[in-house]
Amino acid sequence: MLVIGLTGGIATGKSTVSSLLRAHGLPIVDADVLARKVVEPGTPALAQIVHTFGSEVLRADGTLDRARLGAIVFADEEKRRKLNAIVHPAVRREMFWSVLRCWWRGERVCILDVPLLIEGGLWKWVAKVVVVYCSAEIQLQRLMKRDNSSRADASSRLNAQLPITEKVQYADIVIDNSGSLQDLERQVDQLVQRLLKEAGWSWRLSWLFPPWGVASAIWTLSWRALRRSQKSGSRKKSGKR
Hints:
By secondary structure, the chain is α/β, with parallel strands linked by helices.
């Protein structure tokens, strides 16, 4: 099974691409959905959050008050680290089991929709990275329109994130969402055809004979690690010139 990492920046259109891929029948493992699931009432992660930040982060019905928790960690880097240390491992475990379920069903391709794919280091563990891109100015204009915010506020939010141009450097495939919806749909159609072709026939062998699947995954990740080191070396040489 081909595991693909999908990411982008705020207002670049990643969610739209994810929806289009889902419409093509590809399974989507959505990190944002899982992040909400792992802190539902009764989960170990929620219990840890309450133990760390106090019961005031809960609503009357026992669910997590995200706004109150956000206010607590927003301006405190140490508290953000504590929260991430609780939530991120739980989300990654859920992602692992979700991918495993896709493999068990015999899926040819599985899409990991992860906003922080690059920042969190998960890009190292997928077969290919797909980045949804648009120019910084288009990104800014879309964010202002979507949130009805000022240019200063929108710029502040963008500046708090890893620039989309840096994410593109990690991409195996770039979806350019600077144009129309029709153009985006065309690119997604081409992406689906490419992924299904690359999945080929070996996915059946991986499903029927799991050791082959494990060996194939190790080979793919090792090859990607080698390619990354070569690209990194080339960029460093270019920077010295």
